[in-house]
Every structure is written in C-alpha cells, then in structure tokens.
Amino acid sequence: MSEYILELDHISKTFPGVKALDDVHFRLEKGQIHALMGENGAGKSTFIKIITGVYQPDSGEIRIEGKSVTIRNPLDSQRLGIAAIYQHVTCFPDLSVTENIFLGHEKINPLTRKIDWKKLNSDAGELLGKLDADFGPQTVMGSLSVAQQQIVEIAKALSSNAKILIMDEPTAPLSKRECDDLYRIVEALRDRGVSVIFISHRLEDMYRLATRVTILRDGCYVGDWDLDKVSQNDIVMAMVGREITQFFPPRKVEIGEEVLKVECLSRTGYFKDVSFFLRKGEILALTGLVGAGRTEVCESLYGIAPPDSGSIKLQGKELTIKSPFDAIDAGIGYLPEDRLKQGLLVDWELSKNITLSSLKKFTKAGLMDEKKEWEMAKTLGEKLEVKAGSVFDKVGTLSGGNQQKVIVAKLLTGELKVIILDEPTKGVDVGAKTAIYKIMNNLTTSGYGIIMVSSEMLEVLGMSDRIVVMREGRVSALLDTKGATQAEILEASMMLKGKAEGKAAE
C-alpha cells in the first residue's frame, strides 16, 4: 500500500492557445492537510477539475492509494472517494438540508420503493452532529448563512464516504469567527483520516492548517515544502517569481482639500449618525467586524439603498442621491464587494463591461460608436495592466485579480472625484494584491479620493491615511494611521474598555 492516498505525475492540459498545466506533480498523504497555492491563473482551478473529472489530462498519470486510475467524469471521482467544496457554494436553496446532502444518492426503502425520508433525516442529523452544526436536517438551505452552507457541503462529502476533500477558497466569504469554526471542523476531519487539499490565497489559512504546501506558477509545478522548513518570504517568491520587498508600495501624494463630507448619516436597522470626511488624494479606510455596517454606508453613498437622514456633501455641495445614476453623475463610483454578482457581467466582453456605466459617451443618435468603445476599453485595460488576449475576451475567463481591474477600469470611464472600493483585494492572490495597491496609489496621485472598506488590518494600516472604525452601525473610532496599531483597531471594533471610547469621543 502506498503512503500516498493521491498522486499526480507529469500532468499536462492544454486549451486552445493556453497551456493550463505543464508537467505538474502532486502528492497527498493519508490524513494530511496539504495546501495548494499560486497566483490567480496559476492553474489551480484546472488542477481541481482534473482530479474531480471535469477535465481529462492530455498526459500524465493519476494514482489513488498506489493504483493508476482514469477519472472520466465527476461520478468516477465521487466513486473514488473525492469531493470538492468551493468558495461559492452551489446548492438548491428551496430544498431542505437533508435533500441537499443526499441529492443524487438517496436511500430507497426496499419494501415501499420510495425514498426513506426518516432514514435520510436521521443520517443527516448524525452528520450535522459530527460537524457541530447549529441547525437541523429539515432547515431550508436558503435560510442558512454561507458558513452554514459550507457545513452542509462538508456533510454531503462525508455522506458519500469521501476520503479526499478539496476545499477551494472556503474562508474567502467568512468572518474571522466563522474561519475559526471552519478550522476546527477541518482539523477534526483530518483526525478522522480524511485527507484535505486546502486552496487559499490567505497565508494565515495555510500556516494555521497545513503541514505541507505545493506551489504552482503559470501552470507549472514550482515545488513542495514542509511548512515548518520554509519562510513566508520564500512562499511569496515561489508564487510570484520575484521577491515582494515592499508589499504595500510607497505613496507620495500631497493630500488636498476636503472633497466629501458625510454628516449624521443614518439608515434604520443598518447604521446611525455616521460622520466622516475625505480629502483629495487620500485613502480613508472603513473597517470593523463583519456586520458593523461598513458596506451599508457605502451602498447609501452610492444610492443603492438611500439613507433615511443625514447629509452628503461633495466639494461643499449637498447631494440628494436616490440611485447609482445620481451618484455617478455627481462624481462617486463604487467597486462592490461581490464582483461576480454585483460588479461584472461575466459572459460579456471586457469592452462592454468597462463601458457599461457610461454608455452615453459612446452613443450618437441612438447608435453605439463601437470603435470608440473598443478604443476606450483598450486604453484603460492597458493603463491598469489587465492581462487578456483582447478587449473581446469574456470577463469570466479572467483571473480574480484581472476581474477587479476591469471594474476599476469601468469606474475610470466616468468623471469621478470619489471612488469607493469595498474589499478590493478579496479573493485575489498576493501578486494581484500588490498590483491593485499600485493602482490605488496611482488613482490618488491623479487626484481621486478613495474610501477603502477592508477587513484586513494589515491592509488598513499599510494603505490608508486615516481609519474610520465601525461597530454595530456606528463610528466607534477615528484614527490617524500613523501610530495606530492592530490592537487599537480591534479595541474600537469590539468596543473593549480603553482607548476606543476616548478615540470615538474625539
């Protein structure tokens, strides 16, 4: 018997014009949590799809417990004991938890020849109990949070006796507390003998869970290491092919006059009496725990959900913003947190996505000037270094970091003064993060004022000039980044006794 439960040797996969994987190797031990890392576009998604039978390799060999196997489709993968859980949970929201867990392998009563719901609910309850779930088997799936839906996905994998569990960016949509809960569940699975391939852009996930890491770059195998024998800097160098000595690029911008002033902004049930100001060339961080009201404030500034009271002034002029059109016309742009649902039309071309919010510029006598549209998209794409074959490529074919750049390009087609970036580096790799930070710095140099919503304290401290901390819908602290610490931000986020109360009073 092999010491490895899964082995991939010399795996290659080519699509028209693209070599997605080139001679890739991978080894997964039994009962091991093995991290798989690489920049967006490194080949991780293709790697997963080959293991799960969505794609078949052009060459190479896959072995399960030492035996060579051919995985022709996802059903073959499932029969071999392989299951995958993705960042964006795919479920049937109107069905129960039990129905979602056992969909496709329902248990039939041999006497009645009907589905044995009593047995299924009992088995589902047992699986949920092993995962310490705080909901029952007959709960409607759509009523669960993302973290709870992931628990159902794990239960589904266990219901099919999965020996190998692939987790693709499972912590990306989760709060810190939910991440900690997921860590405990994954470690418990490992202790029961389940082998886990854990894919994440977050280095803290890797160091918290895995014992070994394999790194891919540009579709090629770079290497694999025991995590207790490799430094974080070595990992970053292996991922991006260069040393990122200045993760947060330096910014030398002279802060200008006040461009935006928000006073006593309130929206019933979401936030109350929120006040702050933003200056030209400044990055103002808006942070706090998940649910503190940060995104809701930004949605009100952009007219998605207008506030009930308070005032918004742009360059001294009071605005009435009832829709995103009002915000754009006034000079406010918004990059939403969920780029796939709210920021992009993934089946559309780059050019159409980039020009979507400013179509008036490209229309004459009711007709689109497509040549002008393409030229604008090409100019902005090149300016932001979007990696794509042409402006006619579908946005859905791009990596996460390049998709973020497309949304920023869309903002730049308008005559904006304020840009709101809600979690701009969420779900992108370390190299793409640095590229986005450089773009932000260039925007401030051009005179834009930026509001950056972020849950990452290092990002807040590394990129912003001032910090607005929110807690339960209210501003709990206003901090100057110089001299601010992670502990101070956490105090204000949780409203611990001490500095936070004094800072909020100031």
Q: What descriptors fit this protein?
A:
506 residues, alpha/beta, Rossmann fold, 3 domains, 6-stranded mixed β-sheet, 18 helices, disordered C terminus
Written account of the structure:
- With 506 residues, this protein is an alpha/beta fold.
- It has three domains: 237 residues, 3-Layer(aba) Sandwich (Rossmann fold), CATH 3.40.50.300; 177 residues, P-loop containing nucleotide triphosphate hydrolases (Rossmann fold); 76 residues, no CATH class.
- Helices cover 34% and strands 26% of the residues.
- β9 and β10 form a beta hairpin.
- α4 crosses α5.
- The relative contact order is 0.10.
Mean pLDDT value: 87
> Which radius of gyration do the C-alpha atoms yield?
25 Å
The number of strands is 22
Uncertain stretches: 496-506
Helix content: 25-40%
Overall shape: it is globular
CATH architecture label of the largest domain: 3-Layer(aba) Sandwich
What is the C-level CATH assignment of the largest domain? Answer: Alpha Beta
How many helices does DSSP assign? Answer: 18
Count of discrete domains: 3
**Termini distance?**
67 Å
Tell me which oligomeric state these chains represent: single chain
CATH topology of the largest domain: Rossmann fold
Strand residue content: 25-35%
What characterizes the major β-sheet? 6 strands, mixed
Sequence of strands across the biggest β-sheet: 6-7-8-3-9-10
CATH superfamily of the largest domain: P-loop containing nucleotide triphosphate hydrolases
SS-derived structural category: alpha/beta
